[in-house]
Amino acid sequence: MKFIDEYRNAEAAQAVASAIASITTRPWTIMEICGGQTHTIVKYGIESLLPKEISLVHGPGCPVCVTPIGMIDKAIAVASMADVIFTSFGDMLRVPGSEKDLLTVKAEGGTVRIVYSPLDAVTIAQKNPDKQVVFFAVGFETTAPANAMAVFQAKRLGIKNFSILCSHVLVPPAIEAILSSPQNLVQGFLAAGHVCTVMGYEEYIPLTDTYRVPIVVTGFEPVDILQGIYMTIKQLEEGRYEVENQYARAVRREGNIPAKQLLAEIFETTDRTWRGIGEIPSSGYKLREPYTEYDAENKYRVSSERLWHHGVSRHIEHQESNLCIAGLVLQGLKKPHECSAFRTECTPERPLGAPMVSSEGACAAYYQYQPFFQE
Q1: 73 and 29 in one domain?
Q2: Based on the domain organization, do 211 and 133 belong to the same domain?
Q3: How far apart are CA 96 and CA 76, in angstroms?
Q4: pTM for this structure?
Q5: Which of 169, 150, 144 is nearest to 263 (CA)?
Q6: pLDDT for 313-335, tens place per residue?
Q7: At residue 49, does pLDDT exceed 50?
Q8: Contacts of range 20-24, beta carbons closer than 8 Å, 24 or more positions apart
């Protein structure tokens, strides 16, 4: 199939790898932002094709993985209510909170449903007027337009029993947080192509100017990744620091303008806590004032420590595993197999941290493709 087979072609991949080797004269460290790109790198053994001077590190490119434990605990508290139908994409159900996950809430009798679109949750609210329907709105800018549309449609249709628990996070502020850290080792970035399909890449230009790092918008197939690495290394070797677009077949500089207009109508930016990283200013979305009736945190008065519902207050306890080094993995400071719990105390069946749960998590990628990965 065009745009798939040609970007998985072994000869094309070898040709790009040879081109990378021919221009590399010194060590460079590159971070890919997207979890889908991480899986491609590990699955296809991309690092084995590169010169030893090039080091690839994995960033906070999985929105499930960076959803803070406090937000997971809020979701569990809301989902446990008798009058709530809690809806979510499937990959959130097994992300561990302080004591349990959403799948456990479902097993204990809570009404937790997997949906494939937030608009499905709106339909569920229409069909169940005696219940409150909450959708867990998690994701980068990629999924935000669909969640914005769900809120827009609910308001347009006058649906009062629908709300979202919003935990959207934004990529450019995360890149800036990494670059501004005194521990930062990253010299160039592969930006997530699907995020840029929505948002374009103009937001990255100030980052390249300020921090003097190249950022290359990159797709998800093996040849995409190798081309993105080639473009990044070429800039570094030439002393250039620009935003370039490898994923031109899908991404335009300005992005998807109607989608961005909808986002601006429904959401505004807010400070957001990233699991394993901490709070990053203006790195998330929250609902604008005209739409706050659809904000589950407002509706259920969920704070970071307590939940109020029908006048009853309940304490929420947050506790991370002492063994999990997910924060270091998400910042590109450690790789999954460097964790003492990897493959022992932490497995997909019994995960300690979100990067082992999510289908896009770096730990899950290393676990799944371990036979093809040499430690």
Answers
A1: no
A2: no
A3: 10
A4: 0.88
A5: 144
A6: 455 555 567 788 877 887 778 88
A7: yes
A8: 20/50, 20/51, 20/54, 20/226, 20/229, 20/230, 20/233, 21/50, 21/51, 23/230, 23/233, 23/234, 23/237, 24/51, 24/53, 24/54, 24/233, 24/237
The tokens for 5 are 């087979």
User: In degrees, to the nearest 5, what angle opens at C-alpha 246 toward C-alphas 64 and 232?
Assistant: 85
| Number of domains forming the structure of the chain | 2
Pairing between β-strand 111-114 and β-strand 312-315 as defined by DSSP bridges? unpaired
Whether 82 and 153 map to the same domain: the answer is: yes
Are 295 and 338 within one domain? no
Q: Which two tokens stand for residue 61?
A: 């490119």
Nearest to 328 by CA among 95, 138, 59, 64: 59
Same domain? 263 vs 240: no
What does the pLDDT look like over 195-224, one tens digit per residue?
A: 999 999 999 999 999 999 999 999 999 999
Full residue range of the structural domain in which residue 116 is found: 68-168+256-315
User: What is the spatial distance between Cα 313 and Cα 27, in angstroms, rounded to a whole number?
Assistant: 55
Cα Rg, the chain, nearest whole Å? 21
Give rounded-to-5 percent helix, strand, coil for the chain: 45, 20, 35
Sequence-ordered list of residues with C-beta below 8 angstroms from that of 124, at least 6 positions apart, any chain: 85, 87, 113, 115, 133
10 Å CB burial of residue 2 (0-12, 13-18, 19+) is: exposed
